[in-house]
Structures are given as C-alpha cells and as structure tokens.
C-alpha cells in the first residue's frame, strides 16, 4: 500500500504543479490511473506573507503545523511543502509534526550531486535567496552556491509576487531570468536552482543558460518514491 501524502500548500500555482506531478508520474510505477492517496491543506498566502515580511518564522511554523495536523488527522502519513521560502521554519515544524517530512532542498541537492554539478545559482524570493534554507543543505552535500546581486533579487521577488503566484507567466520575465542565470554562469555556476515553486512554470530548461533543478517536481518525485518505498 502506498503511503498517503499530505501537501502543506502555501502558494497555489506551485502547490498545484506539485500535486499534478505526483498524479501524472505515479502511473509509470503503479499502473494506469493509479497514484498514492493525496490530501492538500492551504492556509491563505496572505497569512504567511504577514509573518514572513517581519521575519516571524516561529509564526510561520505554527501555520505549517496547523496544516500538517489537519492532514494527519485525515490519514496523511508523510508531509511535503511545495514552497521553498517557508522551509526556513522546517526544523521546528519537523520536530513537532505528527508525521515525517521531506525537505525540498534535500531533493534538489540529491539531484545536483547525481548530475555532477558543483556550484548552484539560487533563485527564488528575496527571503529565500538571502536565507539559510539552501546554503545549509548545500553545504552538507558539499555543493557551493551563488546568489544574484541586491537589485536583481528585488526584481526577481517582484516577478514572483506580482506575476508568478498569480498565474501570470510572461516571455519578458522568462528572458529576464535567463539573463540572470547567464550572469551567474559567468561567476562559475554550473546549475540553476528554480527555488520558487512557480519558477518552473516560467523558465524553460531548453533555453535556459544553465541546467535547471526544478524544486517543485523534484520534491513531488521524492514524495512519490517515499510513498512507494
């Protein structure tokens, strides 16, 4: 029996992509139309942003715990969160959670090592790019990282919250991300972390200057493997 996967959602587009990926890729292992039981709980993004903007990560942890407890109460056996930024509260959440979790950055790091990458460009919200979520995990895996400069981080953050989380994906924004990754390639990066779960809906790996690490789909695949283990 596959384990019941609980999805602690934050922003809708990234969570939907994660959900769809599990459902679409499971039949290859489980048979036609089959996938693990899935449940999702979503506290409004506005509630998260109110806390993130003032750096209240303990408050973020409480929201995540509220979601995972509800998911566990209806039978979820393992939890994932298709949102990179709020993983800053992951350690506290994991320590108090009624069910085990998978960490999105670990899924990315495992894939980076498998691809033979060494230095990763981190993209995502400004909170993620300057925060500890990826550096902490990448260090453990012996991987280096770079982030864009301050002005670029602000522009990426504007695109994420002004466009991507609202389901707006513009060619102009895709080209901007590609220009950022091209500059980071010149700084020695050999791979790009798509570290906001909506970025994979914008950036096309076929025309990106760097090999991409799609955090959303990598987490979904890790959850599927864990469910079937």
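^ structure tokens above, recovered residues below v
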């Amino acid at each position: 029996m596959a384990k019941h996967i609980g999805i602690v959602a934050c922003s809708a587009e990234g969570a939907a992509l994660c959900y769809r990926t599990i459902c679409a890729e499971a039949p290859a292992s489980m048979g036609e139309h089959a996938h693990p039981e899935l449940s999702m709980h979503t506290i409004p993004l506005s509630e998260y942003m109110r806390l993130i903007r003032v750096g209240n990560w303990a408050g973020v942890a409480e929201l995540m715990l509220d979601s995972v407890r509800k998911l566990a109460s209806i039978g979820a056996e393992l939890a994932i969160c298709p949102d990179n930024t709020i993983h800053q509260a992951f350690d506290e959440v994991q320590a108090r959670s009624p069910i085990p979790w998978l960490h999105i950055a670990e899924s990315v790091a495992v894939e980076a090592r498998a691809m033979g990458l060494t230095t990763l460009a981190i993209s995502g919200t400004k909170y993620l790019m300057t925060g500890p979520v990826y550096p902490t995990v990448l260090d453990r895996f012996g991987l280096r990282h770079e982030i864009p400069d301050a002005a670029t981080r602000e522009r990426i953050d504007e695109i994420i919250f002004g466009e991507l989380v609202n389901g707006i994906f513009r060619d102009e924004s895709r080209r901007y991300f590609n220009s950022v990754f091209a500059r980071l390639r010149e700084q020695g990066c050999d791979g790009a972390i798509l570290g906001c779960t909506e970025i994979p809906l914008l950036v096309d790996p076929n025309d990106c200057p760097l090999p991409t690490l799609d955090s959303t789909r990598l987490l979904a695949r890790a959850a599927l493997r864990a469910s079937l283990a």
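The mean pLDDT is 98.
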